[in-house]
Structures are given as structure tokens and as C-alpha cells.
Model the fold of this input.
Amino acid sequence: MSRSVITICPYCGVGCGIEVTIDDAGKIIGFEGFKGHPVSHGHLCGKGASSIKLLDITDRLLYPMKRVNGEFVRISWNEAISEIVHKMKEIREKYGPEALAFYGGCRNTLEEVYLFQKLARALGTNNVDSCARLCMIHRLRRSRTCSATVVVQTQLMKYPSKSRCDNRRVNNG
Done:
């Protein structure tokens, strides 16, 4: 007998609801937008809808790797973190703190983002960015102009919306 599990899409800050169907062996056999979710109402964007494909990737990186003589070798997490700290110190000493940059994810909590930028500032750089600025810009633009944009066979058409909430829908398809 299969069972359903409600979860949140991991891709962006919208946090769309996903309903996952799991068989008795624990294998995912179904995946769709959760219709009862208060934000996405069962709709998923292209990233969310295709995220099930990531579950069956068998050659995914699971531990730190370091290139040694042109080959990648497995190293411990402690060694990886030490290597990163060493390289960051080296770059900072050689080129100055503005040579460092921090690039975060858009699914981080506000507290995580705060700590992330605080680390960057402690190392002397203001170079902090995230994919949220790039992959969410269309939602911000729509919420400011109160219009939704649809691309149909390379024609760009604008449809005015009734409210700002309409602009937050992920995919009405």
C-alpha cells in the first residue's frame, strides 16, 4: 500500500508544497504539486516539477574531493574545511579582502543569511550575493507592476492581474 507525504520544494524561497507518493519499499512512485498548499495551490515551476529526476542520480557527489596530480581523491570533511580556510586566507593576503566573494542559496533562512553576510563582513568583504536575486527577479518585477508575463511561441504578452497575490502563482498551467 502506498502512502503520501507532504513536503516543501527545495529550490527557491517560495516554498511550494509537494505531495510525494511512496511505495511499501520506500521508493518514490509519484510526485505532484500539493493542491492544499496555501502559496502554490498545487502548481510547480519547471525546477520543482523536474526535481524528482534528481532522486535517482547515482553519481552524485557525496563527500569532499580534492584534485591531486590531475585526479580527484576523496578527503575528509575536516581536511576539506581546512583547505578552504587556507585558500581563503591566501587569497585575502595576496589580493585583499575584496577578492573574496560569498554566493549563497535562496532557500536559506533569514538567520542563515544574516550569519553568512556576517562571516563575509568579518573577512572584510561586501561581496555577498545569492541566486535569489537572479531566479526570483521575474517575481519581483511582476509584483511591482501587477502584471503576469506569459511567453507563447516567442510572443511576449502581458496580462494585468486583479491583485498582487495573483502574481505570486508559480505555474497556472
Q: What stands out?
A: Confidence is low (pLDDT under 50) at residues 142-169.
